[in-house]
Amino acid sequence: MLHYLDPAFLIQTLGLLGVFTIVFAESGLFFGFFLPGDSLLFTAGLLASQGHFNVFILWVGCMVAAIVGDSVGYAFGKRLGLRLLTKEDSFFFRKEHIHKTEAFYAKYGKKTIVLARFVPIVRTFAPILAGVGRMEYRTFLSYNVFGGVLWSTLLIFLGFGLGSIIPTIDRYLLPIVLLIIVVSFIPLLLEWIKQKRTPPSNV
User: Fold this and answer.
1) Rounded CA gap, 65 and 61, in Å?
2) How far are the Cα atoms of 23, 36, 174, 176, 196 from residue 123, in angstroms, in the given order?
3) Distance between CA atoms of 61 and 105, rounded to whole angstroms?
4) Closest listed residue to residue 119, CA positions, set 21, 201, 27
5) Pseudo-torsion of CA 53, 54, 56, 60, nearest 10°?
6) What is the residue extent of each domain of the chain?
């Protein structure tokens, strides 16, 4: 199973259209939370530096997929509303994911739409909860576009830049990808530790 979620395997097997589809699904479809995001973009940028495909097409396609994905997630949340919050747990849905995203909204407000781009799981559910909460779409879209452009640009060109400077960096791809995954989960870990240390309310 893990082999099929390996970013390099997915990119080389599915190509650019596959990358765009994964970015779209992870950005706004609630069952896409388990797909690789940060590591996928970094690896795609690195492979682009090795001549596997055009980095400009990769960059523009990922930005569009991320922005459209979030907009679909927003529409999904707005349409389902509170029914989503009362949905029973399943393989593709966990209420804890909603609660983690709610904690981010409580802390960062509307900026969550941008910051969530860099946090797994929260990245998927942030636009959905924005729709549930009926955030004004024009406001949502401005944060969505900024976040989608920032996320795609930073990660793709980080991979592309390192690949251009260090031609043999693909030898170290696995540890780099693992590092990206670990770093991206740090905010969730800190939030979990904070919740564990917070005494339960007596109310």
Assistant:
1) 6
2) 11, 11, 23, 21, 22
3) 28
4) 27
5) -40
6) 2-194
Residues 101 and 125: beta-carbon distance below 8 Å = yes
Cβ-Cβ contacts under 8 Å for 156 (sequence gap 6 or more):
41, 42, 44, 45, 48, 55, 58, 59, 62
Reported as a single tens digit per residue, the pLDDT across 35-93 is 777 888 988 998 898 888 899 999 999 999 999 999 999 998 888 766 766 666 655 56
- Determine the Cα–Cα distance for residues 166 and 164; give it in Å rounded to an integer: 6
On the CB side of 49, CA atoms within 13 Å amount to 20
Provide the token pair at 23. Answer: 């970015």
The predicted model scores a pTM of 0.79
Count the alpha carbons within 13 Å of 119 in the hemisphere toward its beta carbon.
Answer: 22
Can you say whether residue 191 is alpha, beta or left, with left for phi > 0 and alpha for psi between -120 and 50 degrees? alpha
Distance CA 55, CA 27 (A): 20
